[in-house]
């Protein structure tokens, strides 16, 4: 169910970006939504990632992240435009 809801929200964002912003905004929105949806849909898998190294040999990510937390941040990232609009209205 959360996947369907997030996909519907993403489709609405893409439609609005295409109508009000044109092709450039559509493509920018598409890339940003790809990140948010990946965090929501694959939170456990993304949370298990450990790796990436600095030039000096120390890893960027040293511990696993809870998948639920990754999904939560994905939802925040997805709903952030709606939250900003609601805050501006009130």
What would your notes on this structure say?
The chain crosses the membrane at residues 12-42, 68-87. Keywords: Membrane, Transmembrane, Transmembrane helix. The chain is mainly alpha-helical. The protein has one domain. It is 76% helix and 7% strand. The protein is built from three helices and two strands; from the N terminus they run ααββα. The protein has helices at 2-41, 43-47, 67-89; strands at residues 51-53, 59-61. A two-stranded antiparallel sheet has the order 1-2. A hairpin with a 5-residue loop joins strand 1 and strand 2 (59-61). Helix 1 (2-41) packs across helix 3 (67-89). It is elongated, with a radius of gyration of 16 Å. The two termini are 30 Å apart. The model has no long low-confidence stretch (mean pLDDT 90).
Concise account of the structure shown:
Helix content is 76%, strand content 7%. With 90 residues, the protein is mostly helical.
Order of adjacent strands in the largest pleated sheet? 1-2
> What is the tally of beta strands?
2
**By helix and strand content, what is the structural category?**
mainly alpha
Helix content estimate? over 70%
* Biggest beta sheet summary: 2 strands, antiparallel
Strand content: 5-15%
Low-confidence stretches: none
Q: How widely separated are the two ends?
A: 30 Å
Tell me the count of domains. 1
Helical run tally: 3
- Global morphology: elongated
List its traits.
90 residues, mainly alpha, two-stranded antiparallel ribbon
């Amino acid at each position: 169910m959360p996947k369907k809801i997030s996909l519907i929200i993403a489709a609405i964002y893409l439609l609005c970006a295409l109508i009000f912003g044109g092709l450039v905004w559509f493509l920018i929105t598409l890339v940003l939504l790809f990140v948010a949806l990946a965090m929501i849909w694959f939170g456990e898998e993304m949370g298990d990632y450990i790796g990436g190294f600095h030039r000096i040999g120390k890893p960027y990510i040293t511990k696993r992240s809870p998948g639920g937390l990754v999904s939560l941040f994905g939802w925040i990232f997805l709903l952030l435009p709606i939250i900003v609009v609601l805050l501006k209205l009130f």
